């Protein structure tokens, strides 16, 4: 410690580092000529002999020194500020020449000096000159990173220092985010270093306050700092100031480090202080864009409270446009944001920049994405579904606005959005939604009158994000009583005014809507006349998914109508791919080895919400039961086994169950269908109908009784066909009454089925009308299954013998002689014994 005070001090820098931490005041000598420097060096040599004399100078010596040297008395605080300012100025110089190596070095010095000041003094807040330096470095760093060409021309060391500075500054500024934000809100000021240094601390100089004898202290520029926009008095804000601040916020959108919440609050304040109705409309449209920017990523949905605010803001804009018809919205209009402009007169025609249909589509998309991630088995999902009415109300208002200006193509886009919200709803669901709309309108009417837009904007600033306030349904929102008429009007308008993609999607939605209402023939005719099945492979993926869902609903509709071949034809193509969940957008495949992460995210974004799902168990049941009714006849009839199989998936299932050693009670859909198939192959229709009717998926159908009755009659008819085909050859005649009792069918049904079998030559017989019997005629084809298998075995053995003869002849060389006809009449099957006599096998 003694060496610290008695060491040789030859430079001012050493004195600064030692004395600044121990003494409150220090002196700085300034020399003006060579003679004075010589005198000073001689005095230093004398002091070197005795280190104590430096601190024990007599009054006479000090008086003599004061005559030659001018001493400036400064506080330790001012000296520390001067050192800090010197480093900041050096950093600024390095930034001007783009020397990031020097910036990094001085940045380390700046932080060390700040730590030294904190240890030495009672510093409670960060010096303002330090915060200003951080802001300048952030701006310079962002500009350097944005200039790609300049970055490429940098030296290797400078580029490395730039990247290191990016990481270090980001890590350092985390502790000063509040100060940096306050500095940016205050705006850039051209303060001199002296003014900034004098106010670098929030602690006031006690001695200076003691010398203040009642006089008012003159405020520095930093004390006269600009008041933030959101804290200004609305009376002091002009039309141009609002436009300028809005322009600044628009330019800051998308920049790294921009506080989106702060932007939204500032824009809400701008809406509150807007001077004219047109300016309020413009600020509200900008506020809606700021709300939509608050979504963290493309694959995540907008928070529900923010979504509600955006929806309420859109309704406010639409109400303002209805109230002020002289204000129009045009997305191609370039808004003037200059500060010098004055507001237009009230009532004069004004155009503002905005995209209403873009806001509507974004609002709809964010609602759709939220349903994809919310658990469908919770009340939150049901509450979120109720917001669909608000979207329909906004769509109706936006459509009415564009209809007034005869923009039919835009109205057609909105009509498609409305169709996509209605096409999958049954009549019962539509009536329930319409009743909910009436309840919501009554609640809104009985509630307190809506506040003015200014009050709404003020309340929105203080609204917490976690608080979810539902959007009130407009009182003029109406829904038609007949959903079929509404769908018809919307779809016909799209057919007249929309583009090809919109027309195709509207057509598929119309077919889907008709299918769920059991209008199969109209849906089928629309599909065939539109030729969508031929062009769907060239459409976008979303339209292809809609086509697959439409085909599934057509298949279910055909099944409910008892059209088993049509139902199977529609569903077999879907199940042929083996990826039914993916092609219906109701699940993601677990095998991701053939997909990139971007493709996985896109596939997840295309998933349908739970309330739009088609029950896959019901779909599989209909597909397998239809295949059972069509394929069981080929399963038992060996003559038709070689025909083209209609359902490959059904035959694979049959082969799998044939290999099982033991088949227990049915548990799932496939077990039930296979059990019913084996019972049906024996003609046991009661057992088959009993097993199939136990499936739980029939409870999902509103016409459960009618469907089961239809299904039982189909099973009876198929069992009759199988029984007559399989066991008919064992009879010489079969009475019609007996068949009617066995299968509980009418005589007309028996006559129809047996006549078709006779015409198709599946059985050989004829009708004997007097006795009402079927006379069976013996034929080579009327053989038992064992006999048919024996014939097939003989045919296979004959083929094997012929192939062996050819192999033997090829080895002995007699095959070529036979082909050339040199065998003297010997042909296939001829042989020659040892005695030279010919024979024939």
Note down, in words, how this protein is organized.
The protein is mostly helical and 841 residues long. Helix content is 62%, strand content 3%. It has 39 helices and nine strands. Strands 5-7-6 form a three-stranded antiparallel sheet. Strands 1-2 form a two-stranded antiparallel sheet. A hairpin with a 5-residue loop joins strand 8 (830-832) and strand 9. Helix 15 (277-292) runs antiparallel to helix 16. The longest helix is centred in the last third of the chain and has 28 residues, at 785-812. It is elongated and about 130 Å long. The N and C termini lie far apart (127 Å). Mean pLDDT is 78; it is low at 1-69, 188-217, 219-225, 450-465 and 823-841.
Q: What would a concise description of this structure say?
A:
By secondary structure, this protein is mainly α.
Radius of gyration: 45 Å
Uncertain segments? 1-69, 188-217, 219-225, 450-465, 823-841
The neighbouring-strand order within the major sheet is: 5-7-6
Terminal Cα span:
127 Å
**Structural class computed from helices and strand pairing:** mainly alpha
| Arithmetic mean pLDDT | 78
The largest pleated sheet is described as: 3 strands, antiparallel
């Amino acid at each position: 410690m003694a060496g610290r005070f008695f060491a040789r001090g030859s430079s001012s820098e050493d004195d600064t580092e030692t004395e600044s931490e121990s003494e409150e005041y220090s002196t700085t000598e300034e020399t003006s000529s060579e003679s004075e420097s010589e005198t000073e060096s001689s005095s230093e040599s004398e002091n070197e002999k005795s280190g104590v004399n430096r601190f024990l100078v007599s009054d006479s010596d000090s008086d003599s020194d004061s005559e030659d040297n001018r001493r400036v008395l400064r506080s330790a605080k001012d000296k520390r500020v001067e050192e800090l300012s010197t480093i900041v100025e050096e950093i600024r110089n390095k930034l001007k020449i783009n020397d990031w190596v020097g910036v990094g070095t001085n940045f380390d010095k700046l932080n060390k000096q700040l730590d030294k000041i904190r240890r030495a003094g009672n510093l409670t807040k960060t010096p303002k000159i330090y915060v200003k330096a951080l802001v300048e470095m952030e701006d310079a760093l962002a500009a350097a990173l944005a200039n790609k060409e300049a970055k490429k021309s940098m030296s290797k060391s400078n580029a490395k220092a730039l990247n290191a500075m990016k990481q270090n500054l980001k890590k350092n500024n985390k502790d000063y985010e509040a100060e940096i934000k306050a500095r940016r809100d205050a705006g850039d000021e051209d303060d001199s270093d002296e003014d900034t240094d004098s106010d670098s601390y929030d602690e006031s100089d006690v001695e200076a306050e003691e010398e203040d004898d009642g006089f008012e202290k003159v405020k520095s520029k930093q004390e006269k700092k600009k008041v933030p926009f959101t804290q200004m008095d609305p009376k002091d804000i002009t039309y141009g100031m609002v436009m300028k601040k809005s322009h600044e916020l628009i330019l800051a959108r998308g920049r790294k480090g921009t506080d989106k919440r702060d932007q939204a609050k500032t824009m809400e304040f701008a809406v509150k202080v807007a001077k004219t109705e047109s300016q309020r409309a413009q600020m509200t449209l900008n506020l809606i864009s700021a709300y939509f920017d608050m979504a963290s990523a493309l694959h995540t949905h907008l928070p529900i409270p923010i979504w509600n605010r955006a929806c309420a803001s859109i309704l406010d804009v639409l109400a303002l446009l209805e109230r002020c018809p002289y204000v129009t919205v045009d997305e191609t209009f370039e808004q003037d944001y200059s500060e010098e402009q004055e507001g237009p007169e009230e009532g004069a025609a004004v155009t503002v920049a905005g995209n209403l249909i873009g806001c509507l589509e974004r609002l709809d998309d964010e609602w759709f994405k939220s349903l994809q991630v919310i658990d469908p088995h919770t009340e939150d999902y049901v509450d979120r579904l109720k917001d669909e009415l608000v979207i329909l109300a906004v769509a109706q208002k936006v459509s009415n606005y564009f209809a007034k200006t005869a923009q039919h193509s835009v109205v057609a886009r909105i009509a498609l959005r409305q169709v996509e919200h209605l096409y999958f709803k049954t009549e019962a669901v539509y009536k329930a939604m319409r009743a909910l709309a009436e309840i919501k309108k009554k609640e809104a009417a009985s509630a307190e009158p809506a506040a003015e837009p200014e009050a709404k904007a003020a309340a929105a600033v203080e609204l917490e994000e976690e608080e979810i306030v539902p959007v009130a349904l407009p009182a003029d929102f109406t829904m038609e009583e007949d959903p079929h008429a509404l769908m018809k009007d919307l779809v016909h308008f799209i057919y007249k005014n929309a583009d090809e993609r919109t027309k195709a999607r509207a057509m598929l939605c119309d077919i889907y809507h008709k299918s769920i209402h059991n209008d199969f023939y109209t849906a089928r005719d629309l599909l065939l006349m539109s030729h969508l099945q031929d062009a769907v492979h060239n459409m976008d993926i979303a339209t292809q998914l809609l086509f697959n869902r439409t085909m599934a609903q057509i298949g279910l509709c055909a099944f409910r109508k008892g059209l088993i071949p049509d139902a199977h034809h529609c569903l077999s193509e879907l199940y042929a791919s083996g990826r039914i969940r993916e092609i219906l957008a109701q699940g993601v495949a677990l095998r991701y080895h053939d997909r990139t992460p971007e493709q996985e995210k896109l596939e997840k974004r295309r998933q349908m919400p739970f309330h739009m799902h088609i029950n896959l168990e019901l779909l599989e049941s209909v597909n397998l039961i239809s295949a059972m009714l069509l394929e069981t006849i080929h399963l038992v009839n060996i003559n038709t086994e070689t025909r083209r199989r209609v359902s490959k998936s059904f035959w694979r299932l049959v082969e799998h169950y044939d290999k099982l050693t033991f088949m227990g009670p049915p548990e799932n859909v496939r077990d039930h269908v296979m059990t019913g198939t084996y019972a049906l192959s024996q003609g046991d229709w009661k057992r088959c109908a009993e097993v199939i009717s136990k499936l739980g998926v029939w409870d999902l159908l509103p016409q459960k009784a009618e469907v089961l009755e239809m299904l039982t009659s189909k099973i009876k008819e198929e069992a009759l066909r199988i029984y007559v085909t399989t066991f008919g050859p064992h009879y010489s005649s079969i009475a019609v009454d007996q068949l009617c009792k066995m299968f509980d069918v009418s005589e007309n049904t028996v006559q129809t089925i047996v006549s078709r079998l006779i015409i198709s030559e599946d059985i050989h017989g004829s009708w004997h009308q007097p006795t009402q019997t079927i006379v069976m005629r013996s034929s080579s084809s009327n053989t038992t299954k064992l006999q048919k298998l024996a014939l097939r075995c003989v045919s296979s053995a004959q083929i094997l013998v012929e192939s062996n003869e050819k192999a033997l002849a090829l080895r002995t060389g007699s095959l070529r002689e036979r082909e050339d006809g040199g065998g003297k009449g010997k042909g296939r099957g001829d042989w020659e014994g040892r005695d030279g006599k010919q024979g024939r096998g």
